[in-house]
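Hi V.,

You were right to ask for the full record rather than a summary. Here it is.
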Amino acid sequence: MMRHLALAAAAALSFLPAGALAQAGSTLPDPPIPCSAFARTDGGGWTVTAPAMLDFHGMLVSFTVGTSFAPGSTPHGLALPVILDRECGNRPSHGLRR
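Predicted structure:
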């Protein structure tokens, strides 16, 4: 019986979109973040200031200049504002941070 449940769970996971797994994998380490490609907005969100591509454990996500992320938003199923808060903070930065 337990084997059937395990097989059913594995089959159900295979139908999830890649973004759902990336969001669920929040315990994985953040990729290197090019903090200089993002600027903090007055409202506490972030704006893309230079082209950026991030590799979230095999899921490549690119961001276009001028795109803004409000606090709490989850573009591509990722808590990007939270990651930027953690990796880049409120201060201007240059280069990659890890």
